[in-house]
Amino acid sequence: MIEIRNLKKNFEGKPVLKGINLDIPEGKTTVILGPSGQGKTVLLKNIIGLYKPDYGKIVVDGVDITKLKKSQLFEVRKKFAFVFQGGALFDFLTVKENLALYLRMHLKMRENEIEKKVKEVLRVVGMTGTEDLYPEELSGGMKKRVAIARAVISAPKYILYDEPTTGLDRTNARAVNNLINKLKREYGVTSIVVTHDIECMKTVADQVALLKEGRIIFVGNEEEVEEKHLDYLYELEAEHAV
Ligand SMILES: Nc1ncnc2c1ncn2[C@@H]1O[C@H](COP(=O)(O)OP(=O)(O)O)[C@@H](O)[C@H]1O
Ligand SMILES: [Mg+2]
Question: Which residues of the chain are in CATH 3.40.50.300 domains?
């Protein structure tokens, strides 16, 4: 469980997060919906301790991470995996080597175990047989799925997705959304998804939080959002229409 309390973050005196309050329940997917430039990425970076907030608490399984030293933070961070917006695969490494990195460096797994684990996660993301390909040989959708495979391979408790469907066509976006649900089902992970994609929210969210001008203005399920904040959804759609 993650509890965010009155979280504030400024950049050069400009407030971006103005007092975020949100609970992230376990084993569920929380979608934080909001337009571009509103601090979604900044919020995720605060949750994994990459940024230090100016004010407030982030309590992860009972521990306020804003108070931790670097070495203690490093331990807590093992609970998290982050799927970056760009995918962030290493271009000079094959799919298998990209996936094996964590297992080799942090877990010191043996080669045959690594082989097995890589195969397993590639099967889960529907990418069986792509071990020896390089990122440049993959489509955008495939890269994203490898990035998700790399997130899940470290057996995280929490997976944070930054705009997982942005830049993908409908078919690939749908595949990624289904995958987020599959990881919840099969591994019981707790996920936080930040996005402006309403379709994504509808497909993956157990809980929706609406971000507006640096604050969470509403938390509820999809039906409640549609009932009480349809105007918010229309505005968001209009802003991101192409
Ligand atoms: N490292 C940084 N230094 C200065 N300003 C930043 C930094 N990171 C983010 N910002 C600012 O914070 C605001 C929110 O950014 P961001 O979280 O990336 O938005 P979103 O992910 O919702 O599109 C933007 O105005 C951005 O310019
Ligand atoms: Mg962002």
Answer: 2-79+158-240
